[in-house]
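Key idea: predict the complex, not the pieces.
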Amino acid sequence: MRYYTYFPGCSASDGGAKAYNWSAQAVSKVMDVDLVELEDWNCCGSTPSSSVDELGAFCMAARDLALAEKTGLDMVTPCSACYVILNRTNTYLNGYPQFKAKVDEALAAGGLEYHGTVRVRHLLDIVTTDVGYDAIASKVKKPLSGLKVAPYYGCQMVRPGFGFDHPESPQSLDKLIVSLGAVSTPFPLKARCCGGSLIISEEDVALDLIYKLLDSASSNGAECLVTVCPLCQTNLDAYQSRVNKKFKTNYKLPVLFFTQLMGVAFGLEGRDLGLKTGIVPVEKVLAKYI
Amino acid sequence: MAIKAKADTFIDEICAIPGGEGIRLCIQCGTCTASCPNADKMEHTPSQLIAMARAGMREEVLSSNTMWYCLSCYLCTVRCPRGIKQTGLMHAFECLAERADLSYAGSFTPTMYRSFNHFACALGSLPELGFMTWFYILSNPFRAWRMIPVALNLLRRGRLSIRARRLTPEGTNQLRAILDKAETLGGVS
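Result:
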């Protein structure tokens, strides 16, 4: 059994990406991975907070890191936004003594201290590096033979680059898809932006980016996409009808979390994986396998 | 001389922010601009903004829409041949604009970021429904009606929670104490 401190993040824990959390927990059991949720964690602050209140945002992330440090385990998050913020906080704390002094002072007001030792990792890193493709393949009960899947990495898991996969041409998700028996389709835009939180404030700008991604996936023959981030999933899935309206297209590409695809291949129950939470229904594409 | 002094002050201000110090290294090659998915939406491209900052154009830089169109996709950051962290620089500009009350009014992004931060700080978690409703009230309530179909779809599939996740009372107090202290420390620099 492998143990990790688990940081689900707001979206996977109680927000729109609960299916990500459910499926992550379900497939972890199969892989003998124990994701122990960090007690009493708070929002990492994400990019929006760090853009309007940098010190406050980093102090929020630092509280989580300080709590995680007490466990002595690697900290794993399924959310790319949490991943980038927690790692950035670590980088800044280790590189800027003056900044660290301020964060330390704030943490001390809450009776906490942080020594900068927590290693923050993305769930996909745990699955592909620690567990490994062979071990995953050995757990597959229903090979996803013939299913054409576009691997969508997005931005913040691979950039600016905290030691996992290539920043522009990543491969880990491609290999994972293959180890589940499916086909990983060429996807030139696999590490390009989905619009992120600008879908809320500048919808048109984000819809253009989502359209390009759907077009790239679809024109390369993908039947569905897999994502590694709650926000990417929401943008591609919940806003797909908006893209269709704006660009007069007719995309019906289901967007799954990579843990959901793993769960299907492992033969787990659809309800444990939250398969019905997709806005674009997944049943038709996965009918052969569930 | 006066211009030089002005430029130095602004550059010093930027360099004092973690990630901002790289601005002195820019050679104006334009790689960041060519890599940016949103460069065409910006009043000034990322490389232009850097040149303006180095020329001491503080007010023009901080009131521009450029940084508010940054997607934090970090493509510029990984491609810069001088190792400048442009995404960090954009965040630094955003924070300085907030502090100077120059947040660009032509974009809804500053309001959205503030609403997000408001909830994240107050509750220690981000209730998506509450945050978005608050944002639409603050920005333009009439835009909210267009969101109804998306919201209904999410609601129907159990993806919009009405209730926010709460920390324990001890956790809430601890976070409050940390953030209150942080507020007295005057920003990152």
